[in-house]
Specification:
Blueprint lengths: L1 E5 L5 E6 L2 H4 L5 H15 L59 H17 L3 E4 L9 H10 L7 E5 L4 H7 L5 E5 L5 H5 L3 E5 L1 H10 L8
Parallel strand pairs: 1-3, 3-6, 4-5, 4-6
Antiparallel strand pairs: 1-2
Helix pairs in contact: 4-5
């Protein structure tokens, strides 16, 4: 599959052939769904947390003596049946949502979503993406000149670039990541992928399994 390569002025300067082992994989929606759900679960942080009787404030002494008052026996005002007492069977932040997915499945799902982006012409390649200063306007102008129907894109960088990362973080619906760290969930969270052509090489070197010497 060939796709055009643009410069930072938005002019098409050449075509590039995408590696078929990464961008030529047939879609399997069931596999992608399974991987994306697991990645969402692994990012989930338990927030809901109720205090049990050992965590609420109060208690320390018996509210009244055991016998002779005519009232029910009570050992602590932190009991769940008291107002202000602990909560029984409430949500706890110790809950774990983590799910394990084999590396081969995650790699396959990544290739599938990359292939689908390529088929839908939602990958924009640049010959290079280089800015000298940390300035949001520079990145904004580059994104305005390249063929994006909507400014909703993930910028995939071949290596860490402080200038681009800091310059793009204030632009709505624009995010950055390194090519070695991409995953199916992040790619599906954005409509377009914008990357220097060097990122294609990094993706291939990182995720394509190299044949063993004896094979």
């Amino acid at each position: 599959m060939k796709i055009p390569v643009y410069n930072q002025e938005g002019k098409e300067i050449e075509n590039m052939v995408l590696p078929k082992e990464v961008f030529g994989i047939k879609m399997n929606l069931d596999l992608v769904h399974q991987v994306v759900v697991s990645q969402m679960a692994n990012r989930r942080k338990p927030i809901a947390h109720t205090k049990d009787r050992g965590e609420v404030r109060g208690g320390g002494r018996k509210p009244w003596r055991q016998k002779g008052t005519g009232r029910a026996r009570a050992g602590s005002n932190r009991s769940p049946i008291w107002i202000g007492g602990g909560v029984t069977f409430g949500p706890r932040k110790e809950k774990k949502f983590k799910k394990r997915i084999p590396k081969k499945m995650k790699r396959k799902a990544l290739f599938m979503v990359l292939s689908e982006k390529a088929r839908r012409n939602q990958i924009v390649l640049l010959d290079k993406f280089d800015i000298k200063n940390i300035k949001t306007k520079i990145v904004f102008n580059v994104l305005s000149k390249i063929p994006l129907e909507s400014r909703n894109a993930l910028i995939i960088l071949p290596k860490y670039d402080k200038n681009i990362i800091l310059s793009s973080r204030n632009i709505p619906k624009i995010d950055t990541c390194q090519a070695k760290d991409i995953n199916a969930l992040d790619i599906l969270s954005f409509k377009y992928l914008v990357m220097p052509k060097e990122s294609i090489k990094v993706i291939k070197e990182t995720f394509v399994k190299k044949p063993k010497s004896g094979d």
